[in-house]
Design a protein that fits this description.
single chain; 376 residues; alpha/beta; Aspartate Aminotransferase, domain 1; 2 domains; seven-stranded mixed β-sheet; 11 helices; 12 strands; 39% helix; globular
């Protein structure tokens, strides 16, 4: 930053109470961290098969089931490695022969690449649309897994997961930045999988999946049929261990604990409707501000596709978005940078349930303050 930029000090009365707006890892509520510190003597540093840890895994599984209002017969399964690992696992036990993928950003395209690289699968059908838009799935006779993304974290596009009309395969939905912040009809999906470092306000390194009976049946059948799979990616092993409220490999115990804290906070305050309402309010604030601004514009043109958990805001080319983010960071308002591979003059702002809508409001005032001084 230039000396002039470094000299920009945002008045304290404009600053948010908590200046964390990262799209992942996300803000972790201080109350959750305090609870972890209090529980640490009897929880951290013990076997992941000990009763205290298995109790927490059970709380995580039950909390996800309650949060998402899972239909009867659905099971919550978890394992190490995050969503990236789950994509690889899905190529072994959830995609039988051929998948269809909707690709409209960095993360939705990565699962398609995994399926294409798997030597035991046929080349996937990939339906693409430009960043800032979203394609639609279509029933295809030889497709047995439809791979959708609830919220594209890189671009700030959100869609409503639905079974394609006439489709007979499983519906696999990446809910990584959506789970716990966006509405969901779980009956429309067979595998809703996500990581906890976003709306669940925890750390990464874990994947969580809500599986329908049809998804469970496919996992167990493919495993019986003998398809080879590395044990770390074996969803059959993950299923067996999850039913015992444990994981195959040692997990990060703090990650599980913090996710449970967030789940209990949301459920205690009204469940998913409570969390969604907070995200809706934050989205209303940030998009209304951008639409009224003379230098900021929502990147996603269609209001119906604008994410309520990750907002992407383009800035006029006369204003350097990286410089704006740098000044904000120097004032302890952090992680507003655009997704690096998107390559736009843009701010990306998380609106997860743990983020107070009043802090989003304060952020808009901070951005205005910075831009006014950068303009001179």
């Amino acid at each position: 930053m230039s000396e002039a930029t470094e000299a920009i000090r945002i008045p304290e009365d404009l600053l948010p109470r908590d200046g964390r707006f990262g799209s992942g890892p996300s803000k972790v509520r201080p109350e959750a961290v305090a609870a972890l510190a209090e529980a640490a003597p009897t929880y951290l540093g013990t076997s992941h098969r000990a009763a205290t840890v298995r109790f927490m895994v059970a709380a995580l599984r039950n909390g996800v089931s309650e949060l998402l209002s899972l239909p009867d017969g659905y099971e919550v399964v978890l394992g190490n490695g995050g969503t990236t690992a789950f994509w690889d696992a899905a190529t072994f036990h959830l995609i039988e022969r051929r998948s269809q993928h909707l690709s409209f950003g960095e993360f939705s395209s990565k699962f398609a690449a995994c399926a294409k690289a798997a030597p035991h699968l046929e080349d996937p059908e990939v339906i693409e649309s430009p960043p800032g838009t979203a394609p639609e799935a279509k029933a295809t006779p030889d497709v047995d897994a439809y791979c959708l993304t609830h919220n594209e974290t890189s671009t700030g596009v959100a869609v409503t997961p639905r079974r394609p009309e006439g489709a007979e395969g499983l519906v696999l939905v990446d809910g990584t930045s959506a789970a716990g912040g966006l509405r969901l009809d779980a009956s429309q999906v067979d595998a809703y999988y996500f990581a906890p470092q976003k709306a669940l306000a925890s750390d990464g390194g874990l994947w969580i999946a809500a599986l329908s009976p049809a998804a469970v049946e496919r996992i167990e059948r493919i495993k019986r049929d003998g398809r080879w799979c590395p044990p770390f990616l074996d969803l059959g092993i993950a299923l067996e261990n999850s039913r015992k409220d444990q994981t195959y490999n040692t997990p990060a115990l703090a990650t599980i604990f913090l996710a449970v804290q967030q789940l209990e906070w949301i459920i205690h305050n009204g469940g998913l409707p409570f969390a969604v309402a907070r995200c809706d309010r934050s989205a209303e604030i940030i998009y209304s501000w951008a639409e009224a601004s003379d230098y900021a514009t929502p990147f996603v043109a269609d209001p119906a596709l604008r994410s309520h958990v990750v907002a992407t805001i383009d800035l006029d080319e006369s204003i350097d978005a990286k410089q704006v983010s740098a000044v904000l960071r120097d004032n302890f308002v952090v992680d507003t940078e655009s997704y690096r591979k998107l390559g736009r003059n843009q701010l990306r702002i998380a609106l997860y349930p743990a983020i107070d809508p009043e802090d989003v409001e304060a952020l808009t005032h901070c951005i205005d303050y910075v831009v006014e001084r950068l303009r001179g």
